[in-house]
């Protein structure tokens, strides 16, 4: 069996989450108003540093070339004593108000920063913080909370940074004491979709796979357009728009209306949905729910099927699928890596518009 690499595992996880959500759309009677939103994404590691290369035996301020690039080490050295806590043969050891500072920028932004830390030898506890700069080190901003290092075994601290563009980092000992801290195993991931690429109605390419899944939202009473949950849906898409990094696209799992097939509320309800959805600037890929057929979980719409072409069904095709140039309720979207390192295929099935043609297409 082929072993999945880390990127493939993340994509497989997101695909599984999507599959579960789409299955949930195929006839879930559930609560009348739901607003579950899941953001799924993957970020690539763009820098690691274990202080295994380079030499610096004094605390005096100096730059040193490490495997990741040039770092300035002020009141810090590369320690390889038996009392240095490390995962390999060396770690960075800092004292007083020591700093470990990148002398280079990451150009794809940063999503997370992870580092291991421990007390040196029998020293007392000490504190430190992580800073970042987006202007080449001219000014610095702290990210996350100040950390207390209190054990002689390596602990892991992870900071969610989510900064786009060029960025560099500095680890800064903050208490000014003579107590020393060992730092090791630095790992930085990129910002996500900020690395490049776009997804449109026909799919696209991305540096990393990042998307959102939006659950069904509809009124609690049939034909109650006045009670349509516009505020809830608006908030969902506003949150997606504000999320950092912003998902490259969104998938909606169905049930955008609760309308009688013999009435006239299909269009007005979908118009309200689309008005709220407009708060998210990236593309939306909808899936068909049972309420886009007749509302019954066992309904089956489409030409030649039991329930035929109801107004719910045809209005959905026009208003929800028209913007992404789809004419059938089932379709596929491909989103692949810019550099060709991974591929993904999103398969949208329509269980409430099932026929032999769709079955053959899915096979």
What does this structure look like?
The chain is α+β, with helices and mostly antiparallel strands and 363 residues long. It has helices at residues 6-25, 230-242, 266-277, 311-321, 356-362, and strands at 37-41, 45-49, 62-66, 69-79, 91-102, 110-119, 126-133, 141-149, 155-163, 168-173, 181-189, 197-200, 203-206, 210-214, 249-252, 283-286, 331-337, 343-348. Strands 2, 3, 4, 5, 6, 7, 8, 9, 10 and 11 form a ten-stranded antiparallel sheet that branches. Helix 2 (230-242) runs parallel beside helix 3 (266-277) and helix 3 packs parallel to helix 4. Mean pLDDT is 86; it is low at 1-42.
Low-confidence stretches: 1-42
Averaged pLDDT, please? 86
Report the end-to-end length measured between terminal Cα atoms.
23 Å
Q: What does the overall shape look like?
A: elongated
Structural class: alpha+beta
Task: Characterize the main sheet.
Answer: 10 strands, antiparallel
Q: Could you estimate the helical fraction of the residues in percent?
A: 10-25%
Number of strands: 18
Count the helices. How many? 5
Q: Helix and strand succession?
A: HEEEEEEEEEEEEEEHEHEHEEH
Radius of gyration, whole Å = 26 Å
Percentage beta strand: 25-35%
List keywords for this structure.
single chain, 363 residues, 10-stranded antiparallel sheet, 4-stranded mixed sheet, 5 helices, 17% helix, disordered N terminus
Short description:
By secondary structure, the chain is of the alpha+beta class. Helix content is 17%, strand content 34%.
């Amino acid at each position: 069996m082929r072993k999945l690499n880390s990127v493939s595992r993340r994509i497989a996880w997101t695909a599984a989450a999507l599959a579960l959500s789409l299955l949930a759309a195929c006839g879930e009677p559930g609560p009348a108003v739901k607003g579950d939103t899941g953001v799924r994404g993957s970020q690539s590691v763009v820098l690691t540093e274990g202080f295994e290369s380079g030499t610096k035996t004094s605390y005096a301020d100096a730059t040193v070339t490490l495997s990741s690039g040039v770092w300035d080490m002020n009141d810090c050295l590369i320690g390889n004593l038996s009392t240095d806590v490390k995962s390999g043969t060396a770690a960075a050891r800092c004292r007083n108000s020591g700093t470990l500072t990148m002398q280079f920028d990451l150009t794809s932004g940063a999503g997370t920063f992870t580092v291991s830390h421990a007390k040196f030898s029998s020293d007392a506890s000490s504190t430190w913080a992580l800073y970042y700069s987006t202007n080449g080190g001219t000014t610095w901003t702290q990210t996350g909370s100040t950390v207390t290092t209190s054990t002689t075994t390596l602990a892991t601290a992870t900071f969610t940074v989510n900064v786009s563009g060029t960025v560099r980092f500095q680890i800064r000992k903050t208490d000014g004491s003579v107590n020393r801290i060992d730092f090791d195993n630095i790992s930085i991931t990129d910002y996500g979709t900020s690395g490049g690429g776009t997804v449109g109605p026909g799919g696209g390419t991305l540096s990393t796979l990042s998307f959102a899944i939006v659950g069904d939202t509809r009124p609690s009473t049939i034909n109650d357009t006045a009670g349509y949950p516009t505020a809830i849906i608006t908030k969902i898409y506003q949150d997606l728009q504000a999320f950092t990094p912003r998902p490259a696209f969104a998938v909606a799992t169905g049930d955008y209306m609760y309308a009688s097939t013999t009435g006239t509320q299909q269009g007005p309800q979908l118009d309200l949905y689309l008005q709220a959805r407009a708060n998210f600037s990236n593309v939306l890929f909808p899936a068909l729910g049972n309420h886009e057929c007749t509302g019954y979980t066992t309904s089956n719409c489409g030409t030649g099927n039991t329930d035929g072409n109801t107004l719910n069904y045809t209005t959905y095709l026009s208003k929800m699928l028209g913007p992404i140039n789809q004419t059938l309720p089932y379709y596929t979207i491909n989103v692949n890596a810019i550099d060709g390192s991974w591929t993904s295929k999103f398969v949208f099935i329509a269980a409430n518009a099932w026929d032999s043609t769709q079955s053959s297409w899915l096979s």
